Structures
1.
Amino acid sequence: MVFSTEPEKVTTAGTLNDGGLDVHNSVTLRYNDNRFATIEYSMLVQLSETVTISGTTGRILIHTPAHVASEVSVIRSSGPGKEESATTKFPWPTPDAGYSCFLYEGEAVTKAIQSKELEAKEYSLDESLGIMTIMDKIRKEIGLVYPTDAN
């Protein structure tokens, strides 16, 4: 997870379609020490599909498409209006990377199973459960209930 801890508060402003599916949502996660994360997703409009991680001395930009990014920039601020940037490119190993966005996760899980491990070190059970807890809170706040969760 971004801050290695569960957020103190989850706030959402989302839209469900006539079938009850979430089609647009803006989510703010508030953590201790005035740290925030914002997430926006939509099936209604085209979004930038980038990730920006901002801090007191600069930011990290994961270029579009963020779910299969091949470019990351680190932008350092040395004062008002003064920035320097360094971009790293890392090409995907296959030409159809847009369709293989879970390549590394799949490889890590396969390796863990073959090694008789209970979880992949890159994707721990605790992290997965933490993400699911956040997703449960988001769904609850916007009124999204899947049929399997209705009981």
Note: The mean pLDDT is 88.
2.
Amino acid sequence: MLFLVLLKIEKLKLSFENDIAPVLLLVFALLAVATSMIAYYKNRENAEFSVSQIRVLAVLRTVGIFICLLLLLKPIIISRKQIKEKPVIVIAVDNSQSLAKYSVPINEAVEKIRKELSYQYELDLWLFGESATKSDTLNFTGNKSDYSELMASVSNQYINKNVGALILLGDGIYNAGQNPSNQLKAFDFPVYTIGFGDTVSVPDIRIRDVKHNKSVFINNYFTVEADIHFEKLANQTARFELSCENKVIETRAIAIPGNNYFVTEKFSIQATGKGLQNYKITVIASEPEINTANNSYEFVIDVIDTKNKVLVLSDGPHPDIGAMKGILESFSNFEATLVNGNTAPENMDAFDLFVLYQLPSAQNQNNQALQLILNSKKPLLFVVGGTTSLPQLNNLQLGISSPPANGFSESQIAYNKDFSLFRIENEYAENLESFPPVYVPYTEFSMNSNFQVLGRQKIKGITTNNPLVALGSLDGRKVGYILGEGIWRWRIHDYNMNHQHKTINEFLYKIFNYLVLKENDENFKLFYSTVYSENEDVVIGAELYNDSYELVNSPDVSMILQKDSISEFRFIFDKTGNKYSLNLGKPEAGIYRMEALTTLGNKEFRQNGNFRVVRINLEEQQTVANHQILYQLAYESGGRFFLPEKQDQLFSEIKSNEKIKPDKFVHFTQNELLNSKWLFALIILIFGLEWFLRKYWGIY
């Protein structure tokens, strides 16, 4: 516990660490006085001094000795300083392209705010578009307007800070993120808004959104839905055009019955080209518009020229087989072939997956088609049922075994949340567990450690350790098991409950897709997306493996990038950890082809690929200012909305707001007296003055 001496010089306080400091101070004072008395009143050499001179010299000696003794207590000086912190006024400016033509008045408004408020307040300027940052450089080049990103950034940046207000300058058009008013609850200060832009609506066509597949298989049909808004074009007719790779493939006329008309145009397209296909929707009005940039919308679809062929081999007809065929054919990337009996198709190598329904069986032990399939090393899916020969299945040594079954039992499926080979959405997992039971062999199955259980058997409401659905890989061959028959009941139940087959389709599609997916065992791999928007960074990843299939990144990896078969650029990948990464930034819209090259030892590796950067025009979609959202932000936060010409009222509002005031707090600092140079100077001065006076008054 610190003992505080009640010695205060302005805002200074002297403190000691020792609790008996008062006693010691008294002792030191008496000791200093006694030493001086002995030195000047008992010493005959001082007899020639006058009484007043002796008193002066004794006082100097006493003070000097006392200060020296005082330092033995390691005194601490505590200084107290009152600090006054200005409130922060955050100025946020929408730096997106929609405000480019208002750059001059906005810059003037910002300068006026600085001039009027900088003396009383600390001003921080923020710019926001697709992101929010502190900056003084207004360029109005943002491709998006994300007001919610600004609100979140300001809220996080000024935690426990004295923020007086947020002044927001913008047009109220947000085309990314959430409604900013949802984040006002994090603010304990008002938002003042200044609205720029034109709020008068004009004749305009705007394609608000287009829904489409990201990929489709060649020659398949896919649906595109375009949401189109017509404003102030009543009783007009617009022309709709759809083009693929600059070739018009469909046109239609759209009658516009009212001044605020919204329509969704749907159409079916057949995918004919291969690879990345660029589509463009254009809507043209019968009379001129001021803004035509929002009349078109471009999108890219990856047309895949491969299908996964599945052969379903069975020992006889069963409703499960029809159900599985229906499920497979509901997906455009699968094609199913059914074979009953012992006859094998001639083109066995053309199949990517074999489904063995209740095979091997006791009734057909010499199935030649089955032997060809087992010898093919292609992925397998076994469906075990009443005619399956479990001893023969054990003899295949394909990851699962069991003793002979003692009849059959009914079992529902219990989804295993620890399954990690692929993901089943929670909604589908819950639906699966409500499906009716299937018939499973009454026995205990054991699995190879390379297998994972997707679903366990749940008998009479009790989940067992026995697998119902399991998947894995043996010596590079993927194998799956469905250890029960009656899948057709699942499909009917799914439709009765949900009026569609979405759950069972998703469940079996994930199984089929996992089994046919080929593992990439190449030494050099590239990782990238096929489509990017022009406002996102294009990042290409790469991995290089040695002959022991260990990741290495000692050699350099270079890339040649070609845009639209014209411009060519060269890059070197960065090395991150044991992998490679190349950030190409935000390239211009267009088609890019790339070739990555590297050398490991005496082997050269190269990978080719292509991607497309799609132009986005979010800032051109809506050009009419939305001052309503600015008014809402101000009203709900306790601020006010102003037009630029009323900006002076904003300054009066802020200056008269009693809640926007400086923070006052006291700052204490502690310093040991021993570290004070002025104290040692004082000691030298005291003893030096004593010595000087003694010499001056006659003692040499």
Note: Residues 3-81+670-696 form one domain.
3.
Amino acid sequence: MRFSIFFIGLVCLFFSAVYPPAAGAQEARAEPVWRQALGGAAIGVPAAQVESVAVVCDGGNLRCYSRGGSLLWNYFAGGRLSPYVSRSREGTSYIARTNGTLIAVNRSGRELWRVSLGSPLSGPVLTGWDGRIFVPLGNRTACYTAGGYRLWNSEFGSRIQSGLVPDGRGGFIVILESGSGGTPEIRRINQFGEALVHRTDTLPRAAVPVSTGENPGTADALAVVYPDGSVEIRTDAGETLPLLRISGTPAAAVSRGDSLAVAMTDGTAVLCSLREGTVLWTGETHISSRDSPGDISMLYDERGIYILSKYGAAGFSEDGRRLWIIRIQGAASPPAFSDEGLLYSGGGDWILYAYRLEERIRNVRQSIYGPAPEASYGLGNPPPSSHSGYYYRNEEEELKKNLGTIEDAVRRGSVGLLEPEYIAYLMEVAGSGTANPGSSRPEIHVRYRAEALRILSFLGSRETIPFLTRVFRREQDPTVKAAAADAIGRIGVDPDGIALGAFAEMVFPPGFISDERLLLSIVTSTAALCRFSGPPLSDAGVRLLVSLGTDDKPPAVRTRVQRELATLR
């Protein structure tokens, strides 16, 4: 008998060591690993990205800290800021003044550009696969390139009821209180502004992308969660498939593949299998009656499921084991959880706190500056344009007409669904000097090839940089070569450093350039890439600029180099 009791005690001791009680153990260790004075109250959720965190303060400042707690930079916007900050994969921060001015700040704290939105920001900006940004503006959404040029604007006629949710296909999901039919709507909007509309009788609490087919990465449907706990599937084909009902009132939801996690207002977390239509497990979180449903958010990745709110956070493994729980007192806004396992919380005492909750780091594919895009829109190699088979497409009048049509759409910010068509045509014109040398069609004049590159720069993205780099390398005419360099600089993104590498090949021996116009374009473009990207790419760019400012270069080039270097200090 004594042996049995002793053996049971050993077993209990073993399991308590392997699976410690998350609530008591974690809460006992819930001391910040660092804290930093903000000089003002934090407003909105911090944005954790590229091993750093950015936080908006009520004095109009955006402050950025390393994951170790060092202040990296402090940007002043010149006025009050809306309580939202988003960061791109490259570390660019997007914030907005309360007067409706959108501002892009690079990873070194330098302002890149600002544009007037016409109305205040109503939620965090969402970044697309190629760096484009989707901007929520109350009853509409606008899309801009990473360089700050508008591609399209979508009017809803009703206010957005929740933030923009990534749809798993490079677009986003919005919930509207009253759509075109006078009933609630869920709209799945792609990167070009095309919407797939789902009408509902009841305003949903959440709508998230899910996979129903054999390929778990297709995100071919939506899981819609209603206030009464019911869950249904909405397919692209317009089917509505009732799935299950969860006991309680949902506050937030998140998905991964064919699994759906839901946080409930009563403090429980639920994981559902959409394939089986069942609840797999239920766990207890930190959520209490103090938490507003609008302040509750969720994350779901290969590490597990995380529930965040103004008063704390909780983490679960995918099999339902609670990993940790933390309760936070005196927070000014909900926290952010980083890929490095740090929880960042802005306190009402003007202090930013960082809590180490996990040692695990997300396993994501990386580029030079941060996580690589999930996929591509295919705009670097789009299908042939509708003009590609037209015999007279290279005639001057035809070129003038088509380029004028595209430029007018660009100027009005209404490119929209025609973006792939326009980009394909501009590439065909701009690249005609390096393709099909034996063609019987008239050669396109240098003026139009350079003009096509100029217009392309207002539509371009990280996906079009390889094409522009090829044109720069292969084109023989210095005017077109310079136009390609100018376009790269206006786009401002060179995530893999291939454009800067092409410039270096032309400048450093055995390369040689004597054309002053081309040298000026390389200087301007290199400086633009440095401003957008920051280190480490900017370090190589500065070395290139210094080499272009030597005494053997034309005076105009040396003067431009000094001016550009001054802006980078």
Note: Residues 204-327 form a domain with the Lipocalin fold (CATH 2.40.128.630).
